[in-house]
Specification:
The chain is an alpha+beta fold. 29% of the residues lie in helices and 24% in strands. The chain folds into 2 domains: 30 residues, no CATH class; 73 residues, Alpha-Beta Plaits (2-Layer Sandwich). A hairpin with a 6-residue loop joins strand 2 and strand 3.
Length: 130
């Protein structure tokens, strides 16, 4: 990283360490190829939920297998959920038997993902250090 942003290793280390200590960087992780990991079906699921039930719904969605991103949003629906499942049958079961069974979920809409592009760190978009 130091080379990419043209600073010394010691300087990069100090800056990253400061960002971790300040809570700006909350952790480090791996970028997963979901298809190669046996999770070939992906979908965004929109949910309309009972007003003021976000915390309860969030806890239940976090427990779902394959849930990778949950967001409370504004607009025509309340929650946007990204899931990865082994196949469409598993996706169907997840939506119909797990998500729609949550009492505070009023309705769902499933958007199948045909192709994904990971926009992680790229050479044309160098990471900036604070």
């Amino acid at each position: 990283m130091a080379e990419r942003v043209h600073v010394s290793r010691a300087n990069a280390y100090a800056r990253i360490n400061r960002l971790v200590e300040d809570g700006v960087i909350r952790g480090f992780g791996a970028r997963v190829d979901h298809e190669r990991a046996g999770q070939g079906a992906s979908a965004y699921i929109t949910l309309k939920i009972v007003q003021n039930s976000w915390r309860t719904v969030r806890e239940q969605l976090q427990a779902l297998p394959g849930a990778t991103h949950i967001a409370l949003v504004s607009g025509d629906f309340d929650v946007l959920l990204l899931v990865h499942t082994p196949d469409n049958r598993a996706l169907r079961e997840l939506v119909l038997t797990r998500i729609q069974a949550i009492p505070e979920v009023l309705s769902t809409r499933t958007l199948l993902v045909f192709e994904e592009t990971d926009l992680g760190p790229r050479p044309d978009r160098p990471a900036e250090l604070a």
